[in-house]
Give the backbone structure.
Amino acid sequence: MKALVDTNPLVSALLKPDGPSGQIFQRWRAGKLELVVSPSTLAELREVLRRPHIANKYKLSAPDIEHHLNVLRNFAEIAPGRLSLDLISADPQDNHVLAAGVETRYSFIVSGDHHLLDLDEYQSVRILTPRDFLTLLEANPTREAGNEA
């Protein structure tokens, strides 16, 4: 199974490894699913993790943050970032996530962002919360390791 993961689940995966996002990330690290991120998501992830209230609360050092980003850069698929969409006017910064999902033709976008979740689906790309995507993985364990979309 393949999924594009938005910034907020990636942050949650690092900060709360036992939560739904963390469990998705662990399955990816175990080779049980394929994960894609957009270049904009990586930039946003760096910025969010460096925010003092997050870095201080979770004791994230600059090397910790770079390690997390390098794992994603080296082992996740990176969307080309050539497609541009202007569909989400309420929060235009969310358009890059939707564009990456369409561009890579993955069947799922995993996000906690209501602007994306409110779409439910766009051009055959389903948009799910981390919990809903984890439930889908658990309901389809044979698809998890395969290359089906």
